[in-house]
Specification:
Blueprint: H1 3-10, E1 15-17, H2 26-34, E2 40-41, E3 45-46, H3 47-51, H4 55-61, E4 70-75, H5 79-91, E5 96-101, H6 106-109, H7 121-134, E6 139-144, H8 154-163, E7 168-172, H9 186-194, E8 202-205, H10 211-221, E9 225-228, H11 238-246, H12 256-270, H13 276-282, H14 287-290, H15 298-304, H16 310-318
Parallel strand pairs: 1-9, 2-4, 3-4, 4-5, 5-6, 6-7, 7-8, 8-9
Helix pairs in contact: 2-12, 5-7, 8-9, 10-11
């Protein structure tokens, strides 16, 4: 029985939230869930840190029951550590275990983890098989097209990963050498999906920044589901926008008041998980998204980037007052996306 196939058969328009370090903590995940994200995954957890009982790694695995279906993503380069980490993650009782074979960040790749494994497909397959055999939960993989433009083995690699027992594969349409530059190549994702030997769900990821693009990618390449990553940062309502596109409904742009309220809900929920200063620092990467399309926001953002307490952030945001926008002369964009 395939967990992902069963779920996607029942939820054909399901959207996945991509795991992102210091972004997709439980506070942000729950906001995305309320906005239409269906399947959530933890921030990626180091297998080496997990087996050494590093508390931060255990904290990353914590989730609320309302987040289900929920997966814990692990990464590493050593088969033994990955197996042990998967078993520790399984004890937390998520719905699935995801293996990260796609992170392009230098400090991860330098240790032979993440996208580094794309230079050694036999090792990728062997490590994945070891994890699949070691746990009872469904296992999925998130990866990329290949190492560079001259080495994109994803069609063959996906088939081999399926053969050792993974139940779904998510493919980001870039190579490791591209990092996040250039344009995601969905043609190879489509080839994986069209491969007659592929029976497991194929989830597409990369450059899904609007409802129209989401609909285009899903229909053109025939993937079973879409995973949204960077486009959700500061923009959790992108899931609503995509669902509206799928259902041929009009998407209503959030008002400035709604954006402020969602941002503050996000920040307030993050503080108990970390500490106030860290939560206030991490929320900074969301400001541009939360207020995209709001004219003259630059001055406000500069103020927000200087403060490290909830009270100060609330005071700056509440300057908008009622009616909103009078403090800084905000104008609303009619083209939010």
């Amino acid at each position: 029985m395939n967990f992902f196939s069963n779920y996607l058969n029942a939820n054909p328009n399901a959207l996945f939230l991509a795991p992102m370090e210091e972004v997709t903590d439980t506070s942000f995940r729950r906001i995305c869930k309320s906005m239409g994200a269906d399947v959530l995954t933890s921030e990626f957890v180091s297998s080496e840190a997990l087996i050494r009982d590093v508390q931060k790694s255990f904290d990353k695995m914590a989730f609320d029951e309302t987040e289900r279906p929920f997966g814990i993503q692990i990464f590493g380069h050593d088969e033994t550590s990955l197996v042990k980490a998967a078993q520790v993650a399984e004890e937390q009782q998520p719905d699935f275990i995801d293996i990260n074979w796609g992170c392009p960040v230098k400090k991860v790749v330098a240790k032979g983890a993440g996208a580094a494994i794309l230079r050694d497909i036999p090792k990728m397959v062997a490590c994945t098989k070891a994890v699949v055999d070691a746990v009872k939960l469904p296992v999925s993989v998130k990866t990329r097209l290949g190492w560079d433009m001259n080495d994109k083995p994803i069609v063959s690699a996906a088939e081999q990963l399926q053969d050792v027992g993974i139940q779904a594969i998510t493919i980001h349409g870039r190579t490791r050498s591209q990092i996040y530059s250039g344009v995601a190549d969905w043609t190879l994702i489509g080839e994986v999906k069209k491969n007659p030997r592929m029976k497991i769900p194929v989830i597409g990821n990369g450059d899904i920044a609007s409802g129209d693009k989401a609909l285009l990618f899903k229909e053109r390449y025939g993937v079973d589901a879409l995973m949204i990553g960077r486009a959700a940062i500061g923009n959790p309502w992108i899931f609503k926008e995509i669902k509206c596109a799928f259902e041929k409904k009009t998407f209503l742009i959030p008002t400035l008041e709604e954006r402020i309220n969602i941002l503050l809900k996000h920040l307030r929920a993050s503080i108990p998980l970390k500490n106030e200063k860290k939560a206030c620092l991490e929320i900074r990467r969301h400001y541009a998204g939360y207020f995209k399309g709001v004219s003259n926001f630059k001055k406000v953002r500069l103020e927000l980037m200087k403060v490290n307490s909830l009270q100060e952030i609330e005071e700056i945001l509440m300057k908008f007052g009622v009616p909103l926008g009078t403090q800084y002369g905000f104008e609303y964009s009619t083209r939010y996306f």
